[in-house]
Amino acid sequence: MFDLTDQIALVTGGAKGIGKGIARVLASAGATVIIADIDEAVGKASAEELNGHYFYLDVSSHKSCKQLVSAVIRDFERLDILCSNTGIFPQCDLVTMTEQHWDEMHDINLKGTFFMVQAALEVMRPQSYGRIVITSSITGPVTGFPGWTHYAASKAGQLGFMRSAALECARDGITINAVMPGNILTEGLQAQGEDYLEQMKAAIPTRSLGTPDDIGHAACFLASKEARYITGQTLIVDGGQVLPESPEA
Ligand code: NAD
């Protein structure tokens, strides 16, 4: 376990699912955790459960992202770790997809990542320290999935953004990396239905879905001081799903 004592950590989309798993692991490593989420009721309850703090965030709004970081600095004076995790994944076939579907996906998943990382860098640069971990996905960067073209584009886009941003702040003591979850059992995934979950389980070499804490542990490593020499990289956490399995396995 890495020691995050005295570290101020902000987790977006931290009210539930993977974000809550990340918040839980960071808190158990000693960080002061701030959950930022659009869902005020669940966000407050999760923050209380983890002995952390809650702030409102609509990640698709530039103003909301900037206000969030200002509020963190006002209350905690610094920001050491940003886990930019918020994301949505409603399914939609390409033939029926409207511009609105496309824009909603990108406003939250991709533009939201840009807004949050930019706002965090404004305070991390003067500190000469920061750890940013973006939650991407295997869908898009490594695999494709019918019904998720807009999602796949947003998740691949996050990685292009992450690599270039990592280079822009490589001399500032700031690292930017991404975790790429496979199928992690969250409310968002459960919404895809039982058939989908069974199909996915059968396709994963471990024959099990991941847990939010599995992603939390990976994020905790990338958020630690010890990961100082890792930047612009991706860490796949998927039970081996993207490995081609031999027929005898
Ligand atoms: P989830 O739906 O369970 O949780 C998402 C959280 O984001 C919720 O708390 C929700 O209130 C919040 N949120 C939604 N819109 C927001 C907005 N505009 N502003 C602020 N907060 C908002 O999702 P999850 O499964 O935990 O996924 C989290 C991240 O992990 C996403 O980026 C997703 O793409 C990625 N991911 C998930 C899986 C998986 O299998 N669950 C796999 C790969 C990648």
Automatic annotation (TrEMBL):
Keywords: Oxidoreductase. One of its GO terms (molecular function) is oxidoreductase activity, acting on the CH-OH group of donors, NAD or NADP as acceptor. Gene3D superfamilies: NAD(P)-binding Rossmann-like Domain (3.40.50.720). One of its GO terms (biological process) is fatty acid biosynthetic process. Transmembrane segments: none annotated. Belongs to the short-chain dehydrogenases/reductases (SDR) family. This is 3-oxoacyl-ACP reductase. It comes from Oceanisphaera arctica.
